[in-house]
C-alpha cells in the first residue's frame, strides 16, 4: 500500500478556488502559498532581475532569499513562497524592482 504525507496525517484541502496570474486563472487549494500555486500550474519563473532581465522563481522556498518576488494585488516585492494564496488574488509577474509604474 502506497502511503502519502496526506494519508499519514489524514488531512485534506478544505477549499478550492482560483487566483489570477497574468490574466490566466489558476486552480488553488486552501493553505497553498502563491509559489505552490504557480509550481502546480507548471510555472517556474515569475520575475525578472533588475539588470539583465534574467528569469527567477523560487530558490530557497523559505523566505530567506528574494528570488521569488511577485506582485500580489498591486503590492510589489511579495515573497511568493511566504504569501498564502487567497481567493480572487491578482498575481502578476514582477519586472525588476516592481516599482516601474510607481515612479520610485
Would you summarize the structure shown here?
With 104 residues, this protein is of the alpha/beta class. It has helices spanning 5-9, 34-40; strands at residues 16-21, 24-29, 47-48, 55-56, 69-72, 75-79, 90-92, 94-95. InterPro entries: 2Fe-2S-bd_N (IPR042204), 2Fe-2S_ferredoxin-like_sf (IPR036010).
Number of helices: 2
Cα end-to-end separation: 57 Å
Radius of gyration based on Cα positions: 15 Å
Percent range of helical residues? 10-25%
Order of helices and strands: HEEHEEEEEE
Structure overview:
It contains two helices and eight strands, in the order αββαββββββ. It is an alpha/beta fold. The chain has a five-stranded mixed sheet with strand order 2-1-7-5-6, with helices on one face. The longest helix has 7 residues. The protein starts with a helix and ends in a 9-residue tail after the last strand. 25% of the residues are buried. The mean pLDDT is 87.
SSE topology:
Layout: H1 5-9, E1 16-21, E2 24-29, H2 34-40, E3 47-48, E4 55-56, E5 69-72, E6 75-79, E7 90-92, E8 94-95
Parallel strand pairs: 1-7, 3-8
Antiparallel strand pairs: 1-2, 3-4, 5-6, 5-7
What characteristics describe this protein?
2Fe-2S-bd_N; 2Fe-2S_ferredoxin-like_sf; oxidoreductase; five-stranded mixed β-sheet; globular; Proline dehydrogenase; 104 residues; alpha/beta
Amino acid at each position: 500500500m502506497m502511503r502519502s504525507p496526506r494519508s499519514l496525517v489524514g488531512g485534506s484541502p478544505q477549499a478550492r478556488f482560483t487566483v489570477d496570474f497574468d490574466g490566466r486563472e489558476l486552480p488553488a487549494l486552501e493553505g497553498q502559498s502563491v509559489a505552490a500555486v504557480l509550481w502546480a500550474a507548471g510555472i517556474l519563473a515569475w520575475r525578472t532581475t533588475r539588470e539583465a532581465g534574467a528569469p527567477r522563481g523560487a530558490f530557497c522556498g523559505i523566505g530567506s532569499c528574494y528570488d521569488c518576488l511577485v506582485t500580489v494585488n498591486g503590492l510589489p516585492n511579495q515573497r511568493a513562497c511566504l504569501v498564502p494564496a487567497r481567493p480572487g488574488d491578482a498575481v502578476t509577474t514582477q519586472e525588476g524592482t516592481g516599482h516601474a509604474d510607481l515612479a520610485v
